[in-house]
């Protein structure tokens, strides 16, 4: 008799749908808990940051990507590998600066919004998918890249697409630890 406890689900779409529904319930609860949209947005971004920090190890182990040599290479890996791996989509990447440190990820379809048609009444400042910005920022932080990650366009606010802006601020130095002998 074989053990099936450690097997991955046969249909990854089911787990994605469960995540999307659970995420929707989380956002709804945060809207009940917090009066102001800014507090909900901050909470979602903070949760996403924590997820991004933890997701890096899984991503590096499962994807076997090599060290990126440029910001543009890093953003391509995020779009083509990470988004595909975790959300089942591949955003379009655009570069927004001559210095090649500002990029946009354009999502024609945002899977976090699969079951959401509009923002709740009176919640026009809510950034429903702030979790994504936090996750990207947290993951980049773990590979020693400081970045500002924000929503530029939001399909839930009437835009044609969802656009996430990523501005690389600087490469942080990894701290070398000396071993005591």
Automatic annotation (TrEMBL):
One of its GO terms (cellular component) is cis-Golgi network membrane. It is found in: Endoplasmic reticulum; Golgi apparatus, cis-Golgi network. InterPro entries: Bet3, NO_sig/Golgi_transp_ligand-bd, TRAPP_component. GO terms for biological process: endoplasmic reticulum to Golgi vesicle-mediated transport; intra-Golgi vesicle-mediated transport. The keyword Membrane does not apply. Its main location: endoplasmic reticulum. Pfam families: TRAPP. Keywords: Endoplasmic reticulum, ER-Golgi transport, Golgi apparatus, Lipoprotein, Palmitate, Transport. It comes from the Eukaryota. CDD domains: TRAPPC3_bet3. Homodimer. Component of the multisubunit TRAPP (transport protein particle) complex, which includes at least TRAPPC2, TRAPPC2L, TRAPPC3, TRAPPC3L, TRAPPC4, TRAPPC5, TRAPPC8, TRAPPC9, TRAPPC10, TRAPPC11 and TRAPPC12. May play a role in vesicular transport from endoplasmic reticulum to Golgi. Belongs to the TRAPP small subunits family. BET3 subfamily. This is Trafficking protein particle complex subunit. The gene is TRAPPC3L.
């Amino acid at each position: 008799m074989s053990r099936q406890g450690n097997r991955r689900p046969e249909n990854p779409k089911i787990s994605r749908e469960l995540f999307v529904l659970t995420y929707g319930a989380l956002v709804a609860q945060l809207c009940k808990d917090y009066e102001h949209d800014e507090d909900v947005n901050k909470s979602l971004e903070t949760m996403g940051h924590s997820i991004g920090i933890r997701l890096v190890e899984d991503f590096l182990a499962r994807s076997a990507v090599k060290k990126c040599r440029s910001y543009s290479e890093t953003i391509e890996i995020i779009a083509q590998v990470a988004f595909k791996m975790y959300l089942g989509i591949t955003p379009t990447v655009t570069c927004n600066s001559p210095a090649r440190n500002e990029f946009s990820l354009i999502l024609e379809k945002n899977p976090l919004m699969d079951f959401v048609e509009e923002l709740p009444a009176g919640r026009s400042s809510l950034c429903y998918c702030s979790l994504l910005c936090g996750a990207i920022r947290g993951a980049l932080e773990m590979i020693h890249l400081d970045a500002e990650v924000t929503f530029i366009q939001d399909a839930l606010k009437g835009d044609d697409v969802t656009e996430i802006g990523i501005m690389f601020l600087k490469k942080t130095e990894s701290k070398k630890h000396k071993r005591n002998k």
